[in-house]
Write a structure and sequence with these properties.
single chain; 172 residues; mainly beta; Immunoglobulin-like; 6-stranded mixed beta sheet; 3-stranded antiparallel beta sheet; 2 helices; 31% strand; globular; transmembrane; Ig-like_fold; membrane; immunoglobulin domain
Length: 172
């Protein structure tokens, strides 16, 4: 009894496996506070690649482009923006394409995807961020005696001022 494999069936199987794999190369979780600016980090080596197209989408990273695109740049200037609340306030010419959400709201919670289109097949830099928004007036943060550097959270907040990063340390 022979079990010949049809090359077309094998190709269909390979493509279906490829498209079932996760797309994000890196991911992280960020906590933001209602009424403050929050920055979601993303960067690439602009010295090596120069100014190139990138986008932020409001969903998991797709296999091409950005689903639910909220902001995009050609590497030199913002070319598309869904709302004035979305800013690329980093230095684009140095590859800082971090997304700043101005005056963040509870509805900003969710998954964001940064895609930098690196030349060549399957070379794109993909970074996924899960943003959790909290109302600072209803939140009580208490230092934990068991916190370690691995459990520290980087939170970037501002209220109507340039973005500054604040490192919250909960150490013994």
């Amino acid at each position: 009894m022979s079990h010949d494999v049809n090359p077309i069936d094998l190709s269909v199987f390979a493509v279906s496996v490829l498209f079932s794999l996760p797309v994000a190369e890196s991911s992280e979780m960020i906590t933001g506070f209602v009424g403050y600016n929050v920055t979601l980090p993303c960067s690439y080596d602009a010295k090596h690649y120069g100014g190139i197209y990138m986008c932020w989408g409001r969903s998991e990273i797709s296999y091409s482009g950005c689903d639910n695109e909220i902001i995009a740049t050609d590497g030199f200037k913002v070319t598309q923006r869904k709302s004035h609340r979305y800013q690329l306030s980093g230095d684009l010419k140095h590859g800082n394409v971090s997304l700043t959400i101005i005056d963040a709201e509870m509805g900003d919670s969710g998954i964001y995807g940064c895609r930098v289109q690196i030349p060549g097949l399957f070379n794109d830099l993909k970074h996924q961020v899960t943003l959790t928004m909290q109302n600072i007036h209803n939140t009580t943060a208490s230092p934990s005696s068991t916190a370690s550097p691995e459990t520290q959270t980087v939170i970037s907040v501002t209220q109507g001022k340039p973005v500054h990063s604040i490192m919250m340390h909960f150490l013994k």
